[in-house]
Amino acid sequence: MKRLDIFGRPFLAERTERGWELFHPGAEGKRGPPLELPIPPFVRSDAELAAYLADLCHEWATPAQPDVRWVE
Q1: pTM as predicted
Q2: What is the pLDDT of residues 18-71, one digit of tens each?
Q3: What are the C-alpha distances in Å from 12 to residues 25, 48, 49, 63?
Q4: How many helices (H) does the chain have, and how many strands (E)?
Q5: Which pairs from 49-58 meet CB under 8 Å and 24+ separation?
Q6: Which residues neighbour 61 within 8 Å (Cβ) at sequence distance 6 or greater?
Q7: Which residues pair with 3 in a beta bridge?
Q8: What is the DSSP letter of 49?
């Protein structure tokens, strides 16, 4: 499970045999159910996922939060 910041909004991303799944991080390290966000099967790498989400969620961008980035 990897942490992902989408224009200032925290998410968790997991690569499964079905493809990528995104989750809202919950309290105490728990996660919510998978988001119903269509991620096509051709999106395979971390960089491809970040670029895809930047395109899909670009309305969330602000001058203070202009990026989709992986959080270490």
Answers
A1: 0.87
A2: 899 999 998 777 888 889 888 999 999 999 999 999 999 999 999 999 999 999
A3: 6, 16, 12, 23
A4: 1, 4
A5: 49/4, 49/13, 49/20, 50/4, 53/4, 53/6, 54/6, 57/6, 57/7
A6: 7
A7: 12, 71
A8: H
